[in-house]
Amino acid sequence: MSAIIDTFIAPPCHDEITFLFQDDHLLVVNKPSGLLSLSGKNPQNLDSVHHRLVRLFPGCTLVHRLDFGTSGLMVVALNKAINAALSRQFSQRSVSKTYQALLCGHLAEDEGVIDAAIAKDPAQFPRMTVCPLQGKPARSRFRVIGRSHWQGQEGMEVAVTRVELTPETGRTHQLRIHCQQLGHPILGCDLYGGQVLPGAKQAERLMLHASGLAFTHPVSGEPLHVSAASPF
């Protein structure tokens, strides 16, 4: 099998990371869309959440990541012991994560569950694919917040549904590919059909935002709930 070559070069991101929680053990930050979570192998992809934060907090590490185009909440550990404790919560699925998204078209249902196993698709890197046989189990819930029209350039309108998404697992591209499975991809999603509807290609970003995060503080044992309003 031929080696996978990643040719993606991230354009400059001028938006700042904002801090929503900070103590001696961890940070919760709001990542802008268009910023890598972790620097890439290509030196042109040096700028990232980790690259910016490690200059302020030497030794900090990411507990999880968000896709390049996704904005919203990320947890950053300030030492290895905190990273291990938080990673344990993520792996045990005791961390509650919620997202907001604009989906292309108007969903008929007001809520539901998407249960579709996800696997890598080496032939179409970096895409993932739904594969019941070889994929890892993946499950997401959705709840409709509202149905409207998104205004693009030149007066072009796209029918959209604003949803709250709750992933019960944490597979790569899970919410993006699960929304595609619904038949309503996330507006602006270049990999899974979110630019197909007339006018949708004008979306300036992936309309996916990590809006809520709840977990147990690994030192105090207190529940920590952080939220960040959707920027779209």
TrEMBL record:
Pfam hit, one: PseudoU_synth_2
Pseudouridine synthase RsuA/RluA-like domain: residues covered: 25-181
UniProt xrefs under InterPro entries: PsdUridine_synth_cat_dom_sf, PsdUridine_synth_RluA-like_CS, PsdUridine_synth_RsuA/RluA, RluA_PseudoU_synthase
Source organism superkingdom: Bacteria
Gene3D superfamilies in the cross-refs: Pseudouridine synthase
The protein's name in its UniProt record: RluA family pseudouridine synthase
Organism: Pantoea anthophila
